[in-house]
Amino acid sequence: MATRVLSSSPKLLNNLRSFIKPLNSASAAAASPLNFDEKPELSTVEKQHPIATTLHQPTTNLDLDDHQKLFASVPTLKLLRSSVNLGLASNETFVDFGMWVMNSRLMETPLLRDIILKTVKHTFFEHFCAGETTTEAGECVRKIQEAGLRGMLVYAVEHTSDNAGCDRNLEGFLQSVEFAKSLPPSSVSFVIAKITAICPISLLKRMSDLLRWQYKDSSLNLPWKLNTLPIFTDSSPLYHTLQRPQPLTPQEESDLELAHQRLLKLCQKCAQYNVPLTIDAEDTSIQPAIDYFTYSSAIMYNKDDNPIVYGTMQAYLKDSRERLFNTARTAEKLGIPMGFKLVRGAYMSSEAKLASSLGFDSPVHNTIQDTHACFNDCASFMIEKIADGYGGLVLATHNLESGKLAASKARNLGIEKGNQKLEFAQLYGMSEALSFGLRNAGFQVSKYLPYGPVDMVMPYLLRRAEENRGLLSTSSLDRTLMGKELKRRLKSLQFAKPEMAASAAGSMKIEIGTP
């Protein structure tokens, strides 16, 4: 099969041979011809309503009411601190004030900045993050493992605009993979990376424009484009690119070569240590380029029913169900085990604003009910694939109903406890009841663990504060159940014998220093 690479950049061809070599192997040649541009048709039933992909009423025993059982592994002081922090995070006035402070000129005054960062560190940072260093993050991983959970390590760097910054971020990601391998077996489920941290944003936008235009006009030749899986469907938003884009400049080609090299190194490290890598999603202006990077690397590294590279699907987008179906079915047909992290999405306001400014409808579902239905359909589709022995799925949800439905579907299809291809996930510090309930029901459950210096993690914390507005139902349940459990523990302490009360009080003091 011919491979398309940068004809004007011979070094890129040499550096990316390890990406391409598996496709030209004898085993690949023996199979049917690979057509990476094929767009599989959905069946009539799938188009109208996904069947077979419908989640039914839950029947599995997912108990989210027994607060004593749910929080049995959580120390009292941590439970109290979590309850307070969630209460603050759900107070819109407090959140608005905090976001104003963090984005204000107060942060330009060294003394005030230091005070603010220290305050954040001992409140929201400790609640939502695993620590500032790998040592602190490792201790956090060990503690959640003792509680029956696993960690998804997130070196919390985000957007970068220059190659020097991208190189620094790559070193952080590589260290994260090595760090994951050094921790207790199975304590880390995934390492998370952002393409925006290893490829300049401006280049991702240019690539996305060119990929969109090529989908509109197949005659457009992209000499740098490697084999990939379907990135678009006919319902995908293409309004970002209203005119034919110019080809990449020599400098952009050079930057693309460097970005490919960075991703190559990261994937090789993950494959070497057998640590799965999940690529986070972004907004639709740059998501096509991110999907391109993700799928082209997955083609090279996902082998032998072992997905190393996972992509992310955002169910709040109207085209996400069809894209997931197309991509998964194409990958399965080509013998490429593809893994996906399924989320709802976090850019609703900015997506709607951009679409409106260009005179188009928002790419986001019109109602939250439509988003829930799409998420559940996508989850059911992939759970059925896993039951048939194909692919991998991370269900990242804070929605109680989605968690119950997916758990029921998995049980009904006979997916056994501890199946490594199905992972539930929630943000560290959020939806604790759902995490522990799924754990108690026998599922693999991970917590998303960002770590890094407080000032570097600040963009992540600001997003958590903003997104928490849409998660009030789950945080409210957590606060209610935490409150009940704290009252139960206080009551049991009051009625304990004096020596037992003194012992319990002593243990509470010891726990004050734990994250």
TrEMBL record:
<dbReference type="GO" id="GO:0004657">
    <property type="term" value="F:proline dehydrogenase activity"/>
</dbReference>
<dbReference type="GO" id="GO:0071949">
    <property type="term" value="F:FAD binding"/>
</dbReference>
<keyword id="KW-0274">FAD</keyword>
<dbReference type="GO" id="GO:0010133">
    <property type="term" value="P:L-proline catabolic process to L-glutamate"/>
</dbReference>
<comment type="function">
    <text>Converts proline to delta-1-pyrroline-5-carboxylate.</text>
</comment>
<dbReference type="GO" id="GO:0005739">
    <property type="term" value="C:mitochondrion"/>
</dbReference>
<feature type="domain" description="Proline dehydrogenase">
    <location>
        <begin position="187"/>
        <end position="473"/>
    </location>
</feature>
<dbReference type="Pfam" id="PF01619">
    <property type="entry name" value="Pro_dh"/>
</dbReference>
<keyword id="KW-0560">Oxidoreductase</keyword>
<dbReference type="InterPro" id="IPR015659">
    <property type="entry name" value="Proline_oxidase"/>
</dbReference>
<protein>
    <recommendedName>
        <fullName>Proline dehydrogenase</fullName>
        <ecNumber>1.5.5.2</ecNumber>
    </recommendedName>
</protein>
<dbReference type="InterPro" id="IPR002872">
    <property type="entry name" value="Proline_DH_dom"/>
</dbReference>
<dbReference type="InterPro" id="IPR029041">
    <property type="entry name" value="FAD-linked_oxidoreductase-like"/>
</dbReference>
<keyword id="KW-0285">Flavoprotein</keyword>
<comment type="similarity">
    <text>Belongs to the proline oxidase family.</text>
</comment>
<keyword id="KW-0642">Proline metabolism</keyword>
